[in-house]
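new request in #modeling-help
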Amino acid sequence: MWSNHIKYHGLMRTHQLVLRWIEDQLSGGQLAVGGRLPAERTLAEQLGVSRTSVREAIRVLEAMGVVRAGVGSGPEAGTVVISDPTAALGSALRLHVATQHLPVEDVVETRVLLESWAAARARPDAPELDLAGALLDDMDGGHTVDDFLALDVRFHLALADAAGNAVVSAMMGSLREAIQGYAGQLTANLPDWDATASRLRAEHREILAAIRKDDGGRAAELVAAHIRGYYKEAGLGPKDSDPART
Amino acid sequence: MWSNHIKYHGLMRTHQLVLRWIEDQLSGGQLAVGGRLPAERTLAEQLGVSRTSVREAIRVLEAMGVVRAGVGSGPEAGTVVISDPTAALGSALRLHVATQHLPVEDVVETRVLLESWAAARARPDAPELDLAGALLDDMDGGHTVDDFLALDVRFHLALADAAGNAVVSAMMGSLREAIQGYAGQLTANLPDWDATASRLRAEHREILAAIRKDDGGRAAELVAAHIRGYYKEAGLGPKDSDPART
DNA sequence: GTACTTGATGTGGTTGGACCACATGCCTTA
DNA sequence: TAAGGCATGTGGTCCAACCACATCAAGTAC
């Protein structure tokens, strides 16, 4: 039996060594979603590193949405492998938006791109559309602004999921998450929230109807107008508008 | 003067408190790209937490491409704010591909979507196209497979940058990074690398020429065919092909 | 005066050990 | 049999020390 102890890792920082070990376990299939990592102390001893380094690696994986750490005992405890790419991408985008190196306009425009594609590609019989329809019905009821926006997020995510591309879905969700704080502030700029909400509901139904009729081209156009219209009404201007090119 | 010490953060883990503090500094403008964080020991004392927690927060930010930690003394040392969203998105995507929760096919298809859009939107006089052209000339010389692929990556990134959307550029780069190990293996499947490389070069020149002639529609088509063709030749099949819908 | 050596200083990198809060499950006890 | 409490194992946090590294300033040799 060979030892897991690895010394002489000159170029790599210790926590990166742990990171690589875990990633290899994932790629090799020894570790899969739902599985549990060895306890921090155990893993530290196995790899011949300190628990601190193991913890730093786990922190990174947690931020990446790859594991979830839970204290205590039992099935809910320990560090278990999950898969939440949206969380990772969302946090990263939000931070870089904070540093002002990712313009909010570009985030919105990318969202238009991805959602338009998803709407065009979604199949009329996709089961996710049933969820979208149910969410739409729910949005008719009297809701607070926050509740309405929460349902709105879920509706758009359901549409994205209907396209059947996990990467696009994840990116969509992360874009939405990255600017959700920003979007929340925008609602304060709206002159008449009730009127806006009513319009949004109508547009939602149009979009869903277009997809159901397998008119992907129209659905894509409606989605693009829907998203751009909202941010424009709330006061977000494109940075170097060139509508003819979009 | 109020104290930075924050006790009683019951619901939040300590490193998340540090994370929030730094993110607030970024959003508020007290910290910007190029700026340096306080030393770990200093920051720990200021926030009233242990150095361990500060380090865990910095690890996360490092993984997110927001800071770079350097030992020693002088301008290169310390923890300095950078902005490399591509690194963060790339690592996250790679890990989730490793867990098999993001199909490689979806990554490729998303790449087609983003690059087609970028090619269609790029302006004929964008300065990034000059770089792309220079890279193309360089690719004519005799290169090893790895060198050729490295230049290929830079060419595609230059095209993406020409569209002027930082989010799309970052996502593009991250998608490429997430599957670059995979793509490297694919080259081994190619029957005749020299022939393939020659074809790729010709396609590159066609794409660039289309953009230069402001024929965005044709550029987008060429890019899509270029990417799909490469992966198809290397043996990657679409998971549920429905070409009429793409 | 110039060039080299050497030490002080400050940075992140790593370690071991200690203690806490928490959740579970077994085991004792009434 | 049912209720309580302790043993166990998990991650969460902190501390004190040491190392490797890079710079800069003081001192020294020429």
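bot summary: Chain A touches chain B through 54 residues (CB under 8 Å).
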